[in-house]
Amino acid sequence: MTFSLTVLGSNSAIPTLHRNPSAHLLNANERLFLIDCAEGTQLQLRRFRIHFQRIKHIFISHLHGDHFYGLMGFLTSLHLLGRHEEIHLYANPELQQIIDLQLAASRTQLVFPLIFHPLFSSDKELIMEDEKIQVFSFPLLHSVPTCGFLFRERKAARNLRSPRSYAYCSDTAYSEAILPFINGTSLLYHEATFLHEMAATAREKFHSTALEAASIAAKAGVKKLLIGHFSARYDDLSPLLDEARSVFPETILAVEGDKVDIA
Amino acid sequence: MTFSLTVLGSNSAIPTLHRNPSAHLLNANERLFLIDCAEGTQLQLRRFRIHFQRIKHIFISHLHGDHFYGLMGFLTSLHLLGRHEEIHLYANPELQQIIDLQLAASRTQLVFPLIFHPLFSSDKELIMEDEKIQVFSFPLLHSVPTCGFLFRERKAARNLRSPRSYAYCSDTAYSEAILPFINGTSLLYHEATFLHEMAATAREKFHSTALEAASIAAKAGVKKLLIGHFSARYDDLSPLLDEARSVFPETILAVEGDKVDIA
């Protein structure tokens, strides 16, 4: 089955003309999962010709704006385009109030069911499953309650090969506590906001360096590492890539529009 | 003194790759006023090389998402870039709660003072003035409480010429009740979401046609009309322009990045 990831945003907090903040699109057996939804995500979906009415599940890691300020616009566009099928939204419970208040202010009653699944980011939890895939949330180490997500093929698909998996870890300080949740993942996305020369800043802001992301990848025994959430200070990303590869050679950069096949 | 308008967004509700939803930037004597702030506005400011820390006053006409979903991202970027100077925000009082809830969810205390001025859109009201300019709000006819804005040079500047003015009317159904507020304006922006063949749809959605916008401009005796808030259904905007010019020849289209000198 298809199992691929498209990067929609690779930057950290401040959008630039070249890099959008966080959003990923996972295609698992032609089911489309949207993971985080920064401002501008709906345009990124258009830009990369992803038919956004096919998205049925949205996962928001935490309530910093660079991970969800595009959500209201995206939901409103689905509404205006006459969507009928339900959307399942997995996020911190405070998001429900933020959405409700904005819908009320615009006197909008969505024309599709929006089904809210609150996440509590305290332990690993199965949050969604169907016959092909299971999705787990698990806690990250950040300045606000933040969830990582693990998407894993079900064992039923194991006959031909070992189940593939994708883990999404953004934003987080370096934390070995996440190792059990991401152990052996086929593709790990781990934020790498800074170069390691800024390790103190990273720690202070509950972010990671490229070296730390690679170290987590190595310790978790993942197959491939994707780094992103780059500080806007870096125009040239190759030093971040070089730094990560010095520890974990199977590292690639998050580049907007790039599709990564998960093997 | 400088008195010019830059269009940052010309589309109605749904952003496309070619047109952003509503946002305008008025430069009045090198003071920058941001009028509406749809999703993506901060990127439009970057694209057109407008130094956004120079903006001190933000006016939000109403709480439909295509007029304010870029506000939180813009404020957050100002915050992250270390702004100190205050921002004055003029909007429906419900916006304050929407902002506060999102700041609380992200545990953010803005590093600059955000001074909220509630607008009640019931009558013409002087909402801001300094030695060069006065700003008034006035009610429009829309499906939610909506303000138009009038920016007018002060009489003190009248020695050399008659005071120039800019009126912003988006979104509104055709309404002659607004004529007294915009009478004789140097530049009138009036929404023109549809061609007149869709007048019934326009009325139902509390929007205007290009013909109606032009009719208002003619009746108000304005000098120039700028039309915008175009439905995403129109790739080619020339029929909208032609329709408006048939009634009011001094009409121009809102085109993103275009700067209109107000004379």
Could you characterize the architecture of this molecule?
The structure is a homodimer of 263-residue chains. By secondary structure, the first copy, chain A, is an alpha/beta fold. Chain A has one domain: Ribonuclease Z/Hydroxyacylglutathione hydrolase-like (Metallo-beta-lactamase, Chain A, 4-Layer Sandwich), CATH 3.60.15.10. In chain A, 22% of the residues lie in helices and 28% in strands. The first copy, chain A, contains seven helices and 14 strands. Chain A has a seven-stranded mixed β-sheet with strand order 6-5-4-3-2-1-14. In chain A, strands 7-8-9-10-11-12-13 form a seven-stranded mixed β-sheet, with helices on one face. In chain A, helix 3 links the parallel strand 5 and strand 6. In chain A, helix 6 (210-220) runs parallel beside helix 7 (238-245). The longest helix of chain A has 12 residues, at 94-105. The model of chain A has no long low-confidence stretch (mean pLDDT 95). Chain A binds chain B through residues 13-17, 39-40, 42-43, 46-47, 63-66, 69-70, 72-73, 76-77, 80-81, 92, 94-95, 97-98, 101-102, 104-107, 143-144, and chain B through 13-17, 39-40, 42-43, 46-47, 63-66, 69-70, 72-73, 76-77, 80-81, 92, 94-95, 97-98, 101-102, 104-107, 143-144.
